[in-house]
Each structure stands twice: as structure tokens, then as C-alpha cells.
Amino acid sequence: MSQLFEDFKKYLHEVNVYDHVTTLLYWDMRTDTPKLGQQDHIDALTEFSTKSFKMSTSPKLGEMLDALSKPEEYNALDETYQFIVHRMKLDFDRNKRIPADFYEAYVREQAESGNAWEAAKNASDFSIFAPHLKKMVEMTKEMTGYTDPGIETYDALLNQFEEGMDSATIDRLFDDLKKELIPLVDKITAKPKPYVPALHSYADPDSQKKIQKLLLDYIGFNWDAGAVGETEHPFTLNFSSKDVRVTNHYYDTEPLFALFSSIHEGGHAIFEQNVNPAYDHTVAGSCRYMGIHESQSRFYENILGRNKNFWIPIYDQLKELLPQLKDVSLDEFYREINCVQNSMIRTDADEVTYCFHIILRYEMEKTIFRENVPVEDLPALWNQKMQEYLKITPQNDAEGILQDMHWSDGSFGYFPSYLLGSIYDGMYLEVLEKDLGSVDTLLADGKIGEITKWLNEKIHRYGSTRTPEEMIDAVCHKPVSAEPLIRYFKKKYTEVYDL
Amino acid sequence: MSQLFEDFKKYLHEVNVYDHVTTLLYWDMRTDTPKLGQQDHIDALTEFSTKSFKMSTSPKLGEMLDALSKPEEYNALDETYQFIVHRMKLDFDRNKRIPADFYEAYVREQAESGNAWEAAKNASDFSIFAPHLKKMVEMTKEMTGYTDPGIETYDALLNQFEEGMDSATIDRLFDDLKKELIPLVDKITAKPKPYVPALHSYADPDSQKKIQKLLLDYIGFNWDAGAVGETEHPFTLNFSSKDVRVTNHYYDTEPLFALFSSIHEGGHAIFEQNVNPAYDHTVAGSCRYMGIHESQSRFYENILGRNKNFWIPIYDQLKELLPQLKDVSLDEFYREINCVQNSMIRTDADEVTYCFHIILRYEMEKTIFRENVPVEDLPALWNQKMQEYLKITPQNDAEGILQDMHWSDGSFGYFPSYLLGSIYDGMYLEVLEKDLGSVDTLLADGKIGEITKWLNEKIHRYGSTRTPEEMIDAVCHKPVSAEPLIRYFKKKYTEVYDL
Asked: The pTM is what?
């Protein structure tokens, strides 16, 4: 090992320790930190993020990366470190132009804006959040001006969350979906709606936690490398493949929420737990592509979790933990968890109308960045689009524009990832069934482990080392298309609703 | 404000941020970190502790403290900062002699030894822990050699946890206790033992958590400045007066454990939450004197929590959460929670025989540091002393010498603090009743808030700004004595056991 390479690894370790505690501060702020303790955590978070940022953009790192990129050094590196050096050099060149002062202010505003959003949502008062949203939009524009000069802001944001993605591609995919799904949903909603009152009645939050444990066990979550927490909104976070945390929220009378969140976040977590551990603590570890990431959470949640056969091996156990299911047959349960209806809240939506929730947000974001609509006008625009796509109008901002936290920390351009994930899932499903046979049969036979193993092998272990395009190409051997997802929806719902 | 003073405050802030994340890493390792994630946390903890240590012992800090100690600067400081500068200078002079390498190795060994102790306890196998214990004893000796040259190791340790305390004083106090308590316990154990089977039967851990919430509310825990966690062993930890965390452990069939741990840790927490917030993030904030600290947890747990009148206002609520109490009268409950018996585990012990558990550990520690007994001989010595003081012999090391974690992180000399705390409590109680009238009446009338207010005013708000001796003198106007505690025991148990 050259002295240069040793110095480089030592440097990476130092940056990583800062990132480690930044991750921990974030986790703790959401899970345990009491109200009066938040400010000190924000201060520490800002300080360590800034330290990490400064080290990640320092001339010293730039020199090391330049030197390691020279053939005589580069060729001596193993494949993993070749990827790391290459990837870090790309990131370095993007980030070095961000002024450290601006970055520090940005991190602080992210945290404060997150708190303002929470307060606004609790009070159902958009005006509390509006000035912070305005600030985040401005800071985001300034940020991409540094990182992606010459690229239109929203395209830069899309590319940031799903490398290689742009609005031209997304327009095409989403247009294909709209064309097919609008009539499909019309046909479905003309049919009688399933409704099992038992699934909208009181369920002890402690029992819901036990169900989460059951489901995480079932899908293959590794408890030696994972933990769960309770937060206002479910999320997954990881320190490395050895420590991956999921959270959940338990609504007293809507047990299905925590149940499907368990599977969704569990999907994210199983992905991270199965990344090649040699990539831990480097840019190769973890998966930085949000569409690819969501494809895994949504594969578990929808393709598997909303399949009747998924429940066959565990339905009796579920009934024990959720006594109101006593007289609910698996068929009734299955129809209920696939009840397609126009609804207010994205995270409560069925997998079909979910697409409209995303398309709405995607269009809102394009408007925000391309038409410079004043933030004050956004709630009305939101409501108008809800009427257009979902034929309902929110009664207040909490169930309207304030429902998601993404914009509060500047994650503009993230939303399309969810739907890209589902689009990839349609494609993966067809390949998986070609390789392993019918998913229905595998699930009914209790062989969900074989599906997880296939996903580990084909997708998870690569972490960030394959871009979304490379991943789709390697797994599916064709370019991204919404057709398989549309086929999946049509086949499934024709059956469920007897269309 | 002078430039010097500004630089000093900035420097303190930097050290504090490191301490902040060190505290958080410790919290997380005990509450959420999965098995495979522990090592990265240990690495980060070691790194930040070492950084903080280096800053706390740097020549730069030494120069600032020297300069601030000069009359022209010192006299310009407010009283709080005069204390801080004075106190930091004492600490600096003690700590600057510790080599940074040694400190880093010590912190790492603490964490590793803690894990070894946990494994040893789970396997009930002292030999897993023995080499780590040996190392911790050696490192502790080396440490006090640096911090307290010329002072005998064990006296240095006692002084470290309870400033001003030495083994001559403790010998006197503990001898007084032994003289009176041995015959008292003999008399009590000759009487029939109360036993309420319902209190040793299954209690849903989730209900136990609800009881904890009830009790913390009742005694005045501030949820805006606090949180709870679940750990193998209960503890309290604080970032500042604004973020104080307690943990608990819920045994399926021994609900009294979590119940009294709630009150005990709640007492520690109420102390920290009520320290003058102007002291936050400095050596004035938090209470560094463990005897004084334990006096507050034990005041709530024993003086209040084991008083019948404490339960009068909440016994009905307790019954709802603990259905097995349905047919248990308050009198029966009261006798059960004051059941005096020779038992194996310190943390399960009643308040009287608890004294023997501490005396045993104190004598063990003196032996370890003054007679250099090989660690291999310690389990036998432990068992022999158990027989001598508590008339029982542990069946295995898990219920014997491995029961407490204190030695695993080098906290030798901590144990006497618990009993010093009770000794102080006896003294406080007499003053409090002089000031506020009968504690029985206050509690029965639901006026526990007045007691908490008195403790806030007399003790809590001072944080670390009064040494134990100063505190006892200011509150009780007399030197420390075990007589009040002995009087309290004799009066109470003569009544409970009709002696």
C-alpha cells in the first residue's frame, strides 16, 4: 500500500467519524430528543456536518484524489477503490465550489425549516412554514448553481437523487402511466369499494409493534445489524451495512399504516444490510440512488406485501396480534389492502392512485423551479391539482400541501424516485419470475427467502457501485419503461375488482 | 467582555460539542445500537473522548486559565464564571499529567471491558471478565498516579466520586451503621415476612412502561426536557438541564423493579433538570458529586417512594395499570415494598439490607486496591462476605460478583456514594420536616410538588457549585452523620414490623 493510499484511507476515516455522529444526531433528534434539547442537537449537527463538508471539499483531498487518479496509482488500486476514487473525484469537483459559509447556513436552515414544517403541520397553518419554504427554494437554487453550473435547476435536482435521470425521461414515463391509469382508476372506482371496518378500528400500539417485529422477521431483517425506533414519520437510516435503523408511527385506529410502513422501511433496510460490507464507510457503500432505493422498499411493500400469497404463511399469527381480524377472511383482508380509491394522503394511498400523488408533486416541483410561482400560491395550486388527478380537495393544509416533510429539508426532486421505484419494480418482477418462477407460488410456499436472496444477489450487494441505468441494464437488459408496471396493475386489478 | 474571555468561551463550546456527541454515543450504545454496530460506535466514542480530553488538557487551555485567574481578569468575571475558572483550573492541573495515549487506551478499554462484563454476566462466567477487570484495576492505579500523585489510590478514587470524602470518614459512618443495623435486621427477619404473590407475577412490560410514565409525571419529571429509554440496566444521563434521559428495564414477573427504578432514576433526572440553566455546558452545571446525586435518587425512591402516603393519591391509577393489585390493599402493598430480607442482588434490595450490599463492595474495593488480591480470588471473597453480611451465598457469578457493571468501566469507589446518599437523606429529611412539616401529611395531601420545590431550592439548583461538605453544611448546619438515617430506619421498621 502506498503512503498516499494510506493517507487517503486515514483521511476517509476522519470524515467518516464526523458523518457517523451526524447520522446519530439526526436519528436521536427524531426518536428521543426532547423539545428543549433540540437546539443543542441542531448546533452539534451543524458543526459536524460543516466539518465533514470542509474535509470533503478541502484542497488536500483534491490533491490526493488527483494523485490517486494518475495511472500508476490508479491501476494499483483494487476495483472497489478505483470506484471510490473515481466517484469521490466527481463529487469533489461538484462540491468544491460550494462556499463553506453557505453550506453551514444551508444545514442550519434545513434543521430549522424541518422544525417549522412540523409546527405548521400540527397547527395546519401553511403560513408558519411559508418563509422557510421560500428560503429552502432560494438556497436550493443557489446550491445547484454551485454544484451543477449551466444545468437547469430541476434537472440538476432530479439527477442528484437519481443519477442520469432528467425531466424529459420522467415526462415520457409519467405520461405513459397517466394515459393508462386514469381510465383504469375510473373503471375501478365505478365498482363497489371493499371496506372492512375492523381494519379501521382501535389496535393497541404495542400490538402494532409486535406485528412490525413479526413482519421484519418474516421478510428477513437482520436484528444483529438493525434496530427500530418510533417517529412522527417512518424512515430508514444507516451507519453502515452493520447498523441500519427503521422507524414507524403507530396510529391508534389505522393499523394498516404501521403494518405497510414496516414492510416498506424493512425493504429499504434489507437493501442496506446486504450491501457488500467491504464498501462500508465509503461512497461505494449504501445506495445513493433514490429511485433504486425506493424500488426495493416498494417491491417489498407492494409487489410482495400486497400480494395475497405473502400473507398465507403468517395470517394466523397476524390474527393473534390483531384480534379484530378474527372474523376477517384472508380474501377480505386482501381486497381491503388493495382498495383503490382517490384519497388525500400520499403515504396512505393504494399502489395505483399513489402514482397520481407523485405526478402531482412532480408537476408542482417543475412549476416551483421553472415558473417561479410565489410560495403563497402553492397551497391553492396543490388543491387544484388534487381535484384534477384525485377528484378531491383537501379541507386544510395539513392534509394538503403540508403532509410531506420532503420540501422542508430541501429534498426537491425526491418524489419522482418513489414512482421510478415502482416502474423499476414492474421490470424486476418480470425478470424475477423468469428466473425463479411464479412469485405467487414462492410466497404461498413460504419461500420469500428465495426472493430476498435473488434481490440481494442482483441488486443489494452493489450498493452505489452501479448507477440506475447500469442496474436496470444489468438486471433487465432493456431501457427503463413503464409498460411492465402497467401490465402488472392491469392484470392484478382486473382480478381483484372483477373488471 | 475581554477578548481572552471570549476566546475562552469559544474554546469551551468546542470541547462541549465533543462531549455532547460522546454522551449521545454512550446513550445510543445502550439503547438502540445493534450488536454489529457497536464497534463503530466504540471507535467514534474513543475518538471524540480523546479529542475532548486533549482540548481539556492542552497548554492553550492552561494558559487561558492562568490568565483568567489573575486578579484583573478574575474580578471582572461574574460569580458563575469565577467558579468555572477556579474549578477548571483544579481539573486541568489534575488531568494535564495524564498522557493522551494512555487516556485513549483507557477509554477504549472501558468500552471493551463493559462489553466483556455483559458477555460474562450473560454466560455467568467470571473468567470472561477477569482479564478486563485486571486491566481496569491496573489502569485505574496508573490513572490516579497521574491525577493524584502522592495520594493512596482508593482514597483518590473516593475523592473523585465524592469530593472531600476519604476512607477514614466512610469507615466511621459505615461502622456506626453496622453497629445498629445488624441487630435491627436480626430483629426484623425473626418476624414473619410479608409476601404478596401478585407483586411477583406477570406484568405486561407495556403496562410497566405506562406506570413509569405515571410515576415520572407524579414526581415532577419535565417531559419537555427529558426522555426515557430501555436498557439492560437503568441509568440517568444528561446533556444539559434541557435534555435529561432516564432508562429502565422491565422484568416480566417483577414489576416492582421497574417501578422503583422509575422513581430512583426520576430523582436523578429531576435534580439535573432543575440545575440553574445558566450553568449548562460548563463544569458548574450537572452535579459531579455522586453521593449528593444519589441522595436525590434515593430520597425519591426510599424516603418518598417507600412511604405509604406517597401512594395514596395514585394507588387507584396504579391498580388500573397493574390489574393483579385488584385485591391487594394499600397496607399490604406498603408492607411488601418494605419487605426487609437478606437477598442476593443490590438493586433488588430493600433500603435497610441495601446498606450491607454497599459495605461489602466498599470492603472489596479496599481489599483490591490496598491488598492487591489477584482478580481470580475475588469471586470467592465476594461470596464469603455475602455470607458474613447477608447470610446467603450466590449460586453463580451472575448473581454474585458479576451483578454490577461499575467495575467494568473502572468506577471503583463509586459504590459508597449510594450509601452516603442515604446518609445525607436522613439528615435532609429532618431539616425538611422542620421547614415544611410532616412528609407523611404532605404526601397524603398530594403535595409532593412542595417537597420537590424544597429540594430544587435547597439542593438541585446549585449543580456542582457546592461541594458535598458545603452542601451538607448549608442545608443541615452540621457535619455528616449516620445518626439521622439510623433514627429513620428504627422508627419506620419498628412500626412496619411491629418490633
From this structure: 0.92
